[in-house]
Amino acid sequence: MRPRDLALAIVVTAIWGVNFVVIHVGLSSMSPLLFCALRFGVAALPAVLLVGRPQAPWRWIIATGIALGVVKFSLLFAGVAAGLPSGLSALVLQSQVVFTLIFATVLLRDRPGPRRVAGVVLAGAGIVLIATQLGLDRPLGAFLLVVAAGAAWGLANIAMRKASATRSGPEGLRPDRPRPGADNQLNFMVWVSAVATPPLVLLTLTVDGPAYVWHALQGLDLVAVGAIGYIAYLSTLFGFGVWGRLIARYGAGTVAPFAALAPVFAILSSALLLGEGIHWYDLVGGAAILGGVLLGATGVRTAKLDLPADAAPASVRPIERV
Questions:
Q1: Range of the domain at 291
Q2: Does some domain include residue 54?
Q3: What is the pLDDT of residues 139-154, one digit of tens each?
Q4: How far is CA 34 from CA 141, 142, 199, 216, 305, in A?
C-alpha cells in the first residue's frame, strides 16, 4: 500500500476504536435507544438523497438494517450503559466471529476450513478468559448484552453476504442493478441506516416515552451533539467511504485485516480518555480474540463487497466466503 493509503487505513480504524469512548460520552446524555435512533437518522439524512438508489436487494438491506442497526447497536449501547467498560466492549463484541461461523454453517451450509475453525476457537478462548473476570466493575448482565450484540452482528454478516451474492440464482441481484462492490459500501450503509431509523424511533417512543424523548432532545448540549456527529459522519460516512475506496484499490484481503486494530485503539483511548484500567487478563484475552480474528481472516477468500469490522458503532465485519 502507498504510505498515504496506509495512513488512511490506520486513521479509519482509529476513528472506529475511539467510537467506543464516544458511545460512553453520548450515553451520559441520552438513553441507548435514543442515541441509536439519532445516530442512524443523522447518518441517513441527507446522505440518502445523495448516494442514489440502493445497489443491493431491498430484502437484504432491510435484514441488515434490523439485525445490525436495530438489534446489534441497541444491545451494544445498552451493554455500555449497563456498565461494561468501553474498551472491553470492543473486545467482547468480537464474539461475532464465533456466531458468524455458527450461522454460516447452519444457515448457509458452509464448511469452514481448519484455519477458520482454529481462529474461532482461539477467539472463543479469549472471550471465556475475559468472562471469568466479571465482577462489580464489569457486570454479568452488561457482558451478556454485548455478547448478544455480537450474535446480532453475526446474523447481519449473513445478510450482508447475501447482499453481495452474484446476480444469478434466487438470491441474486436484479439484472438492471450493478453488482455491489467495494465502491458501493457507502451506498449500502446509508440505506441500512435509513431502514434502521424508523423502528428505532418507534422503539424509543415506546420504551422511553415521548416525554423523555422531548426532554432529552431539548437538553442535548454540544458534547452530545458532537458525539452524534462523530458516530454518524466520521465513523459511518467518512469511515465507510474511505474504507470502500481502499478495498476497491487494494482488495479486501489486503485492507480488511487492518480492522483488527479498532479494538486496540478502543482500549488505548478508553484508558487515556476515560481512565479505564487495563488488566493482564484483558490483554491476554484481547490478544487471543484479535489473533483468532486475523487467523480466520487469512484463511478464507473474501467477497468483493467485504465490509470492515467496525468495532465501532456502526461498523460491520468483512463478509467472508468460507
A1: 3-315
A2: yes
A3: 999 999 999 999 998 8
A4: 20, 18, 11, 9, 30
